[in-house]
Structure formats: structure tokens, C-alpha cells
From TrEMBL:
InterPro entries, alphabetized: Elong-fact-P_C (IPR015365), NA-bd_OB-fold (IPR012340), Rib_uL2_dom2 (IPR014722), Transl_elong_fac_P/YeiP (IPR020599), Transl_elong_KOW-like (IPR013185), Transl_elong_P/YeiP_cen (IPR001059), Transl_elong_P/YeiP_CS (IPR013852), Translation_prot_SH3-like_sf (IPR008991)
Cellular component GO terms held in the UniProt record: cytosol
Organism lineage string: Bacteria, Pseudomonadati, Planctomycetota, Planctomycetia, Pirellulales
Presence of keyword Protein biosynthesis: yes
Cited SMART domains: EFP, Elong-fact-P_C
Gene (name only): yeiP
Protein's recorded name: Elongation factor P-like protein
Source species of the chain: Rosistilla ulvae
Signal peptide (UniProt feature, chain positions): none
The keyword Nucleotide-binding appears for this protein: no
Keywords, ordered alphabetically: Elongation factor, Protein biosynthesis
Length: 187
């Protein structure tokens, strides 16, 4: 796969290990005939190290040989999150450090998650575009100037704090965008 075809979320082979592409920055040349450079930021899925890589648009990397499995969150303990394959009921465990910020969107029983399986073990997760979560703490609405749309902070069941519209109450179930962390709607 050529560098110009690689997108965020793609897994490629770099130095013999799978590399998950987290971000891409395109640097266009200022001179005629110069090549466009693609700067990739990724995470080595085996060693968990961050990797910065710069390639020309015509340079190629091989796609990593892994597969995606639909999983469901079973439970979380002090060190790991435990997942179950929804087809064959295999169980996987991932360290909480390896899950990172995605942990704030993972609640018990959540479905629609895809695990990236490499050498029979999970190396990453793909979250759905939005998830439904319960609000555990939210300040009450303030009466008064409601002509403008105001927001207030709300704490969700996983500890994630987001801004919600003023009309949302404590205990409600809402949809949250997993890519931006923003409120979408009531569930």
C-alpha cells in the first residue's frame, strides 16, 4: 500500500511489527519536482511504543496480517479489561494502559466494539462512532436566560466529563461521539 493511500486507523507492517496509524500530516513541497511527504504518527502494537515515520507518497508499506473480531466488554478489574468474542465466546484480556483514552467510552456490557487480533491476542480496539452512557452527576438547570443555548458539565458512568445542554438531568441516558467526546443526543 502506497503512503498516499494510508488512512488513520490503518495497520501496516513497519520494521517487522504491526503499526497502528494514529495521525497523518501531509507536507506539500514548495519547489517544483519535490515530493510530497507524509508524516505518520503510529503505535507499535507489539511493544506499545510511539513511532514517527516520514515517507514519500510513492513509498510503500505492507498491510499487517491481523483480523478484526466483534467483542463485548465483560468486566474491568484493577489492571485489565476483559472482552468476549461475540461469535465463538473466546475471552481476551487487555491491560488498561494499552487501551488508553478509549477506556472512558467502555462500559460493562457494551457491544459494537471490534478487537484487532494479532498472533491470537488483542492489540487494539475499534470503538463504534457513538456509545450510550448514563449520567451519574449533573448540576440542575438554572432558571433564567434560556434564549441562548448554554451547556454544563456532566459526569458519565465511566468517569468521563463532557459538556451537555442545560436541559439534561442527572440519571439520563445520552449518546456520546467516541471520536470527539461530544454530546450527540438523548438515548
Amino acid at each position: 500500500m502506497q503512503a498516499k493511500e494510508i488512512k488513520t486507523g490503518t495497520v501496516v507492517v513497519y520494521n517487522g511489527d504491526p503499526l497502528l496509524i494514529l495521525g497523518i500530516q501531509v507536507q506539500t513541497p514548495s519547489a517544483r519536482g519535490a515530493a510530497t511527504l507524509y508524516k505518520f504518527r503510529g503505535r507499535n502494537l507489539v511493544s506499545r511504543q510511539k513511532v514517527d515515520l516520514t515517507l514519500k507518497g510513492t513509498d510503500a508499506l505492507e498491510m499487517a496480517d491481523f483480523h478484526k473480531r466483534d467483542v463485548q466488554v465483560m468486566y474491568r478489574d484493577a489492571e485489565q479489561i476483559h472482552l468476549m468474542d461475540t461469535e465463538n465466546y473466546n475471552q481476551y484480556a487487555m491491560n488498561l494502559d494499552d487501551v488508553g483514552d478509549q477506556l472512558l467510552y467502555l462500559s460493562e456490557g457494551l457491544e459494537g466494539i471490534r478487537a484487532l487480533i494479532y498472533n491470537d491476542g488483542p492489540v487494539g480496539l475499534e470503538l463504534p462512532a457513538s456509545v450510550e452512557m448514563d449520567i451519574t452527576q449533573c448540576d440542575p438547570a438554572v432558571k433564567g436566560n434560556s434564549a441562548t443555548s448554554r451547556s454544563k458539565p456532566a459526569t458519565l458512568e465511566t468517569g468521563l466529563v463532557i459538556q451537555v445542554p442545560e436541559y439534561i438531568k442527572d440519571g439520563e441516558r445520552i449518546k456520546v461521539d467516541t471520536r470527539t467526546g461530544e454530546f450527540l443526543s438523548r438515548a
